Structures
1.
Amino acid sequence: MNIKIYSTPTCPYCKLAKQYFSSKGLSYEDLDVSQDKNALSEMVKLSGQMGVPTIVIDGKIVVGFDKAKIEELLKV
Amino acid sequence: MKVYDLIILGAGPAGITAAVYAARKKMDFLVLSNDVGGQTAWSGDIENYTGYQFITGPELTLKFEEHMKTFSAPLNIPEGVNDIKKENDLIKVTTNKSEYISKTAIIATGKRPRMLDVPGEKEFKNKGVSYCATCDAPIFKGKNVAVIGGGNSALDAALQLTKICPKIYMINITQQLTGDHIMIENVNKSGNVEILNNSKMKEIAGDNFVKRIVIEKENETRALDVEGVFIEIGLIPNSEFDKITEHNKYGEIVVDCHNATSISAIFAAGDVTTVPEKQIIIACGEGSKAALSAFRYLSTHKWG
């Protein structure tokens, strides 16, 4: 499973999302969009919006720490 | 249906503290909330919470959550409350998922950011429009932005943005900024903030993302090219679901010094109430008082 989290260091729900994946023993790629310009434009392109966290699970996009949607995608 | 001793609505500083006290009093209770931490989760630097010379909002929220978890407090999130009623000496709470019955309740649902209510605001949310400078400011590095508002939270947002944005417009509807002098001074000193007083927001416009805002100043409309709009025009209480207790004209739940509302067995705590001063440490204190009041109510009343 390929998990990417587009985040900023100051956003509390980014922190919660990362903790959630760690607690499930799932590894993820953390992209800090406040530092990484390419990651920011990639996130905007993929999701059509600028809110963080934007989470990509096997190509499927979740905007915000939407636990129900994340759990649905993880089960698949 | 199960009858709880206490249902706590909200899991911000007030609700969490009430939960800690309720757990220590061995009450049979439940916490229902949309999120954990409430406004604290979105706060930047906190330097006035006793015991911590410095802590960030997200960090303090984690501490609160850990503290609550040590008591295994039963917490349902996200579960938003839609209605509260009192029937036959019992309280009925209806949420977006279920119904619950309890003997007492504490409303600690806090406040949320006020919306501007101008064209484009909803359409461009997360597409340039933000209600949380702490969270989103870094995304607007190198871009021109506007901050709407003139109080401390607007000034705080502007100050966070001065470090990363070339130009910041402050759109303030009143004659002059209303925040603390020291913050106004810092904003003035930064050199890249243009303050527009007596200015009213008319529209947020763009294509896929925000490109400009339209303001009205002294009967003249003016368009400003910005890619970010931070809306900081105050807060409103999350009290609409409660149609039974007395509210003041701002929608805050009226409480006495024991956190009792106008309806017996229903208590309220924190920013959603008329308590003077909205502070994290005050919300915590109010939450503990409300839980102790609920405990006292339980031990002095009989249910058939």
2.
Amino acid sequence: MESTPEQILASLLDEADAGPTRRRSHHPVDLRALDYVDSYDHNLMCAICHSPFVRPVTLECEHVFCQRCISETMFHQGQDLRTDSATCPSCRRKLHHPATTPVTKILNQILDELRVNCPFRSAGCREVKHRGQIQDHVDKYCDYVEVECPLETCLLPVQRKDIREPRCLHGLVKCEDCRMSFLEKELESHQKNHCEAGKVSCPDCKAQVSRRDLAIHAEICPEAVFPCGAAQYGCDFSAQLETLLDHETTCPLVKLVPFLKMQNERLVAHEAALKHLRQKNSILETSFSTIQETLNPSNNNLIDLPSSSTTGSDTGPFDSTAHHLLSLHESLREEVNRVSAAVEHLDAKASMMIMNANLTIKEDLSHTNAAIAGMRMQLHWLVSARLQNQQRVGVVGTQRSGERLGSTSGNNTAGPSGSVELPVRRLSDSNRQDPKL
Amino acid sequence: MFASKRLGKIQKSLPPGIDLVSAPDFKEWQMDIRVLDSNPLYLNQTYRLRFRFSNNYPIEAPEVTFTTLTTPPRPIPIHPHVYSNGIICLDLLGTQGWSPVQNVESVCMSIQSMLTGNTKNERPPGNEEFVARNTQRPRDIRFVYEDSSV
């Protein structure tokens, strides 16, 4: 070991501080010096610092201490934990194994969940945090931690809450009352607590109060006379605070105050709504009367129309007419709706009928077409039969008897029979395209 | 530091025969101790202990001595390990014997039991010479623990 005691101590302390979650900070919090809000099991207390363990380690003999406590102890005794000469503070057993071992994670979690007061409580911070979060709170959020002045050339510290506006509060300002100079950041506390010149006496209780606090004091001054809380609803009692408190527990009007207040609010809301409606109404009425004048100069028929306004009856004739007109307008609109619906209905019906008629006509047409085609075929057949007959008459001539020829010509629709008929049919069969076309 | 916090805890409850007289700060405390059994050497006597804490407490041992007072009467007990100037020869209070897990309460109890178990009505050997020439702080004195039976 060549290193000096200071170096050893520094390295030991570094070891104790260099946890994975610890951040570098201007104000490293010594967790052992914290004020614990929660009560904790006495078994969680380090026997050296009497605080809940901070980064506890186990020795070979299974005694547990804060890493920093045991490091400092060993160093002070001239013993280094890394040598073999260390003894346990609790049982004085020699520790042969040089290293300490960390305890289980769950123990650390239990310890980190203990709630502590912010270390800057004396400066005014009222936060209560889990121990595991207190370093973060001090580093980033605590309003009462002293941080660097926003002005780069200024070296004086300032509390974090005072740097919301980035300006140096270390200039000298004068207190308006006592003409003494203070740093700007201290002025407020001076005026509030220390400045004698700024004090005025309360007109009621003669107490010396800072002029700025007079308004606050006036509301709680024990000597001042206050009216009863239900003064605006008719209670004319007034007394000093103490008597007033007694009175207000018995005063029936005070009990009604919330209800009356609610009623007042509703009344105001209703009046506003009424005003709005009136305006709307008058606009409607003027426009309607213009329409009325252009359409029908006489108002007689309005009276005949059904008036559904039941609410209008109690608000005077002015409103009634307007309602009447409105209902008239409404009924007309309904009528129009009805008519348009009927028209639509009729339209649909008519188009349906047309479609039906169309279908029958189409069917008839196709029937007719078919009949015409049949007739055409027959005609064709007749024509070709006649032509063949004429040819045969020309070729056979005298071989056939005259009666036979006569019977054929007389029976022209029934067609030729026997050997004459067959070839004709075949011809007609082969020419079938005609009727198809 | 956290040591001051730790010292603050003791005021809550103390074992019988041990009383906190004054603790104005975390530098020096006064405690009264009595022997509880009927040891004739210390019967009906109360002794005043003075604790001095360094900044390194509890890593470093406190300096514990008996002091005398006339009102109320607080003598220095006769004991083979207590010098007549109030210095106590107890391994617990030396650099070697001290352990940071000790506290004011446990030190008082150790001294209490040291007195209780004693039967010899005598000062340590070489008392006069030691009292006359000693200028060291009690903590730094390297006592020879001749007799471990008391």
